[in-house]
């Protein structure tokens, strides 16, 4: 066994954290330093873990046209779950909508607050302002993975929505993807976060899970190589 493999084995066994937190804090560092590339390393039971690049530059950029499309037709308060430095909060506020970003990352929340955005540090699973009264909640850029249990997250989101409110979710490119796993964020120098539970689901798994979470899939669309769905409270 190589030294890296032995060290990784030890790290996989550590208590789980949240996306990119702990260890060398590569997520917070990437936000602060405007690094564009990080890697998501995922545990592969029984075989070596593998790391794939993720576009970290997107988190600190403005919402693009595809992101903006998510807010079309939204007329009430918007909750961006796992908002990072707040590009979707900025987009919603720019449309004159009341908006709140929630994120566990102190660095992301500080950056968003310094930019004049309305944000709160905490977990989506904690008690929240306007429980049951959000017109829209967002899970973009992989955030359906938060907590590593998509069904639990969808159920929590249904509780947050107003009657008639919409949950806007970005999905995997792969319609059949349905995976929960332990991951780590890694920077290009090999600095790694602590392990965190994460999930990736496509449209089929979303449809399978929506009903039990109290939601119905009202629409899904592909744009610019990305796949989205709009769910309503059942
Ligand atoms: C992939 S990043 C996406 C950032 C942002 N949505 C964007 O698109 O720019 C995931 C974010 O989810 C946050 N997060 C992880 N677990 C969370 C939780 N339980 N509650 C709220 N935010 C969480 C992380 O801190 C991180 O900022």
Describe the structure.
The protein is of the alpha/beta class and 234 residues long. It has helices at 3-12, 26-33, 57-60, 65-69, 87-94, 106-114, 150-160, 203-210, and strands at residues 37-44, 47-55, 78-81, 99-103, 119-121, 134-139, 161-171, 178-186, 196-201, 215-223, 226-233. The protein has one domain (3-63, 75-233): Rossmann fold (3-Layer(aba) Sandwich). The protein has 8 helices and 11 strands. The strands form 2 sheets. It has a 7-stranded mixed sheet with strand order 5-4-3-6-7-11-10, with helices on both faces. The protein has a 4-stranded antiparallel sheet with strand order 2-1-8-9. The longest helix is centred in the middle third of the chain and has 11 residues, at 150-160. The chain is globular, with a radius of gyration of 17 Å. The N and C termini lie far apart (51 Å). The structure holds S-adenosylmethionine (SAM). S-adenosylmethionine binds next to β4.
CATH architecture: 3-Layer(aba) Sandwich
Ends apart, CA distance between termini? 51 Å
How many helices? The count is: 8
- What Rg is obtained from the alpha carbons, in whole angstroms? 17 Å
Quick one: how many beta strands?
11
Strand content: 25-35%
Q: Regions with pLDDT < 50 over 5+ consecutive residues?
A: none
Number of domains: 1
- Ions, cofactors, ligands: which are bound? S-adenosylmethionine
Oligomer: single chain
Element string (H = helix, E = strand):
HHEEHHEHEHEEHEEEHEE
**Helix residue percentage:** 25-40%
* Coarse structural class: alpha/beta
CATH superfamily, by name, is Vaccinia Virus protein VP39
Strand order of the biggest β-sheet: 5-4-3-6-7-11-10
CATH T-level fold name: Rossmann fold
Overall, the morphology is: globular
Organism: Cryobacterium shii
Protein name: Class I SAM-dependent methyltransferase
GO molecular function, one term: methyltransferase activity
Domain Methyltransferase: 78-165
